[in-house]
Amino acid sequence: MRPFELTVPATVDEAVAGGHTFLAGGTTLVDLMKLDVVAPQRVADITALPFHGISTEDGLRIGALERMSDVAAHPGVPAAVTRALLLSASQQLRNMATIGGNLMQRTRCGYFRDITMPCNKRRPGSGCAALEGNNRMHAVLGTSRHCVATHASDLAVALVALDAELRITGPDGGRTVPLTDFYRTPGERPDIENDLGSGDLVTEIVIPYPELAANSTYVKIRDRQSYEFALCSVAAALDVRDGVVAEARIAAGGVGTIPWRLPGVEAALRGEPATEAAFTAAAEIATHGTTPLAHNGFKVPLLKRTLVRALLELTGGDER
């Protein structure tokens, strides 16, 4: 780890004006600093700033500095969010990591984390070693010739499905950004991963429609049952009335370069009976636009099966 200056800003204005890299739980940043993947010169510990609390008034509002374990245990948090958090990490990590930090975590692509290898996220213009390398864990949606790394956050997938919004403050004031617009696909600039500018801080996460989120789930498929990143995951919320899907929200993880919302699947489900046959037909749309690589083609059928499993779980059906 390279030397750096550590500060503890007393106010929000002091934090956003300092040109710092922000540190909260440190479960991602410290690891990357130890690996020399990132080497910030100035780090600001923001844990004392007033971005705490969970409120169910005017939608569900979660302070960005709330710990993952506390959010998972809150009775007002939708099942999709709770399950995503519980499946994300060990209890020890959940006790340390913050909600805002989880949404800001970097990819777990091995080539990104190995400074001896080319990676356009880490060193723009150096190339993407995963394209011709070991790409079993990599994305099949939202990729480009410059990057195929998946987004790591389970929580972000659940929140994207639930229409979550981020409250952001920075040197130019505050703003609200839908989480579906926050993350950026790699395109020509894999190093630009989200909508934050210099000094910007995520302060709060808002789920504006908790009534839809009330019937939600998160299904995660991984190589082992213990702490592991997703090969494929699906967050789903359904409003079923008289056996017919009135509304749906669907997002997928482990398969996209960002948490991947599936509006085509949502549209295909609306007005259809809540049956396995209808779910299976809608799941075909989920894989439109996929671009498998040499080792990750299995993710295409896996996404469809995971989606059907999640929808059956919400409707009490049995997967056959």
TrEMBL record:
The lineage of its organism: Bacteria, Bacillati, Actinomycetota, Actinomycetes, Pseudonocardiales. Residues 1-212 form the FAD-binding PCMH-type domain. Transmembrane segments: none annotated. It comes from the Bacteria. Keywords: Oxidoreductase. It comes from Prauserella alba. This is Xanthine dehydrogenase family protein subunit M.
